[in-house]
Amino acid sequence: MKVSDFDYELPKELIAKFPVEPRDSARLMVLHRDSGKLEHRIFRDIVEYLKEGDVLVLNDTKVIPARLFGRLETGGKVELLLVRQPLPNLWEVMAKPARKLKEGKRIIFDEELEGIVKGYAGEGRRLVEFKVKGNKDFMEKLEKVGHIPLPPYIEREERPEDREKYQTVFAQKPGAVAAPTAGLHFTEELLEKLRDKGVIIKTVTLHVGPGTFKPVKVENVEEHQMDYETYNVPEETAKEVNRAKDEGRRVIAVGTTVVRTLESAADESGRVKSGEGSTNLFIYPGYRFKVIDALITNFHLPRSTLLMLVSAFAGRERILNAYREAVKEGYRFYSYGDAMLIL
């Protein structure tokens, strides 16, 4: 299977730079897997497609202001993107320019915060230990000096409102460097309507890393390696999902991160196990889904692992046909764009 099999033409003007307001007024394309039928709706209409007893699973990760700008003690500007935290105050970071960040180098962010390069963590990555004067909490300091890491294709600087807009209304657990974007369309009112209808809403946590934007550089899809991301499935979520599967009710994933979490936490029979774990599960056509029955997702980049995942779920030709229709109808693409419901 070639990466080029997952390419499509997208006019640049369809890449959303800003979210719609209110959140649930985004457009919604509904794709029926059995027939290939497409419907054009508004996101809040999703209430019509979900029914009593459905289990809707959200990713409650919270985006941290993971982008930091500093200067080397010896001179020169530095940009860091926090990736993961192996130890307290020690972070693996993506660094620009990485060549300047040799072991022992000191980075100054302001009069209170500094970082010391402790080692290498792969191409373009470093291990940096952060120190805040007076032994203050690093995460509290990060909230003040860090920037929201908007995806590179948005091609604009962060604005104050992005702190709220690039965050789901149900975000709880800090740790992501990218938003689980399918969840951005939900409002508190819409979630309440779903609950009133009898939809069971549960959460998992997967801290989205920069690997979500990692380009596939190999020609053969099967040779690509995903980055590891940590996840947690609460006991109550596992019980509810397993109960739904036993009773023939639907499990609906909000976003590819929820798909990868549930599928990673399931055994071969489809029983979901609670607890923490890490996954580099790469889902592409040919994968046999064990847990999810429907998927809410955004429109993804050409040749991306996310496009391959939705193609595995709905069929490559069906997805590419839906994307051609979305382009023709002027849908908005990517993180701040419109949504798709695959039934």
Give the structural class. Answer: alpha/beta
Question: Which of globular, elongated, flat, extended, rod-shaped describes the shape?
Answer: globular
CATH class of the largest domain: Alpha Beta
Strand order of the largest sheet: 2-1-17-16-14-3-12-13-15
What number is the mean pLDDT?
95
Could you give me the name of the CATH homologous superfamily of the largest domain?
A: QueA-like
Order of helices and strands: EEEEEEEEEEHHEHEEHEHEEHHE
Report the count of strand segments. 17
Count of helical stretches = 7
Major β-sheet, in short? 9 strands, mixed
Number of domains: 2
> Do you know the CATH architecture of the largest domain?
3-Layer(aba) Sandwich
Q: Give the helix level as a range of percent.
A: 10-25%
CATH topology of the largest domain: QueA-like
Please give the oligomerization state of what you see: single chain
Q: How much is the radius of gyration in Å?
A: 20 Å
Indicate the low-confidence ranges by residue numbers: none
SSE layout:
Layout: E1 27-31, E2 38-42, E3 55-59, E4 61-63, E5 67-72, E6 77-87, E7 90-96, E8 106-108, E9 113-120, E10 125-132, H1 138-145, H2 162-165, E11 173-176, H3 188-196, E12 200-206, E13 229-233, H4 235-246, E14 251-254, H5 256-265, E15 275-279, E16 294-298, H6 305-314, H7 316-328, E17 339-342
Parallel strand pairs: 1-17, 3-12, 3-14, 4-11, 14-16
Antiparallel strand pairs: 1-2, 5-6, 5-8, 6-7, 7-10, 8-9, 9-10, 12-13, 13-15, 16-17
Helix pairs in contact: 6-7
